[in-house]
Amino acid sequence: MADATRDRLELPLRVLYSLALYLLTPITVYHLIWRGFRQSAYFERWSERYASFGPQRDHRVLWVHAVSVGEVNAAIPLVDALLQRRPDLRLLVTTITPTGSARVRALWGDRVDHVYLPYDLPGAVGRFLHHFRPYAALIMETELWPNLLFGCRDYGVPAYVLNARLSARSLRGYQVLAPLVRRAVRTLRGVGAQSHSDARRFIALGAGPERVHETGNLKYDLALPPTVETFGRDCRARRAGRLAWIAASTHPDEEAAVLSIHRRLRGRWPDLLLMWAPRHPERFRAVYEQSTAAGFRTARRSDERWATPDSGVFVIDTLGELLNFYACADVAFVGGSLQAIGGHNLLEPAATGTPTTTGPHLHNFADISHRLAAAGALRIANDEAGVAEALDAMLADPALRASMADAGRALVESGRGALERTLALVGADLPAGQ
In sequence order, which residues have a C-beta less than 8 Å from that of residue 312 and are 6 or more positions away? Predict the structure, then answer.
C-alpha cells in the first residue's frame, strides 16, 4: 500500500514542480542577462539552455555532467580514463557555467562533445535525452534535478551520482522538496559516495541503501601533469628567493580580508608577493582595481607572464592555471571558507606540496579537511586573524613548510583508488567494447 501511495503521488508532485518552473521561466532570461553584464559568455548559447541542439545526432554518447569548474576538475580522472580505455565511446560533457565550459574545452577540446545542460523543464529534458540518447548519465557530486532524474528513468538511461557529496546543510535544504526529491533519488542506478557520511546522507535523502557505495573521492586520483613541477620550479627561480603566498578561489566577501592579511604579512616580509586567483572571472578586474587602490603595485597574468620584481600583488586572471601557481607558492590560503560558501578543493595544494590554511566554513569538504588537518598538512583558522597567523607561522618556518608538504603529498597518495571503484560501479551499464 505504501508503494502504491508513492506511485500515485509522483505525478501530481511532478506536475506542481514543473508548473512552478514554467512560471519562473521568464526569470531565467533575466538571470542570464544579469549574469551576462558581469560575464559576457552568459549572453551566448541560450538555445542550449532550452534544449535546442540542431539536427539529430547519428551517434549515442556516454554522458558526464559537471556543473562548473570544481566538478569538471573532479571529473578529470574519470573522463581521462574513459577516453583512454573506451575510445569506441563518444563522450558528452555538460556544464552549467561558462567557466566550466571553458575548462572542458581547455582540457579535452574536440575529444569530447560539449553543451550546456538545459534547465530542468520536462520538455527541455526530454529534447536533450532524445537528441543525445545517452548510454548512461554520470552526474558529478550533487546535481539532483527531479525532472532530469525522472527523465533518465523514463527514457531508459541509467543514472549515477559519482564522487557524490551531500553536506548536512544541503540535506536540510532538500527538505523543502523532500517528497519529490525522495522519489527522484530513488530512480538512481547507483551512488558512488565520497565518504561514509555522504553515503548515509544520500540514503536519508531517499536513495536505496543497496545502491549506495563508498567509492572514495576522485580528486585523490588527479595525476599532476609533468608541466606543473616545471612551472613551479621556473616560477620560483624567477622570484630569486622572494617569498610568495597564494589566495586561491576567493569570493567577494573575502577580498578585503585578503588585502588586509597581505598588508599585515608585508609588515614582516616587505617584499612578500601575493598571487591572487579569484574564484570567478567576473572578479578578475575587481580584485586588480582593489589591489591597486590599496597601494600595492599590481600585475596581471594576462598582461605579463610573470610578476615584476617590484610587484606586491600578481592577479591570476586566467583559467586552468591554479595547479601551476599552487606549485609556485610557498604557502596557500583556499577561499570560500571565510564566508559560508563551504570551502573549495584542498587536495590540489596538497598534491603540489603547498602548505595550506583555510577558514572555518568547510561543510562541502568536511571529510577532506579533517583528514588533511589530522595529517598535519592543513591549518584551519577560525577567522581572518587566524588565517594571517597561520600564514605567518608557515612563512617563518621552512621546516614546518617541508613537513606539511610531505604530509599533504602522502595523504593524497594514500587516498587513491576511487577511480577504479567508480569505473567498476558504472561498468555494467556501459556498452560492450568494440
Answer: 262, 266, 272, 273, 274, 291, 296, 297, 298
CA dist., res. 296 & res. 279, Å (int):
21
The pLDDT of residue 2 is above 60:
no
Query: What is the torsional sign of CA 14, 17, 20, 26?
Result: negative
Q: What is the DSSP string of 10-76?
A: HHHHHHHHHHHHHHTHHHHHHHHHHHHTTSGGGGS-HHHHTT---SPPSS--EEEE--SHHHHHHHH
Left if phi > 0, otherwise alpha if psi is -120 to 50, otherwise beta: which for 417?
left
User: Residue 204 CB: number of other CB atoms within 10 A?
Assistant: 13
Q: To 10 degrees, the CA torsion angle through 259, 261, 262, 264? A: 120
Going along the chain from its start, the domains and CATH numbers come out as: 2-216+421-429 (3.40.50.11720), 226-414 (3.40.50.2000)
In the beta sheet, which residues pair with residue 160? 138, 190
Nearest to 281 by CA among 44, 114, 40, 95: 40
Residue from 10, 44, 48, 71 carrying the catalytic annotation: 71
Complete edge-to-edge strand list for the sheet that includes strand 212-214: 113-116, 91-95, 62-65, 137-140, 159-164, 190-193, 212-214
Concerning whether 304 is annotated as a catalytic residue, the answer is no
Mean pLDDT in residue range 28-44: 92
State if pTM tops 0.85. yes
Residues 192-232 have pLDDT tens digits of 999 999 999 999 999 999 999 999 999 999 889 889 999 99
Q: Is 288 helix (H, G, I), strand (E, B) or coil?
A: helix
Question: Cell triple for residue 352?
Answer: 603540489
**CB 353, CB 409: distance < 8 Å:** yes
| Each residue's pLDDT tens digit, 235-282 | 999 888 899 999 999 999 999 999 999 999 999 999 999 999 999 999
**Tens-digit pLDDT profile for residues 380-392:** 999 999 999 999 9
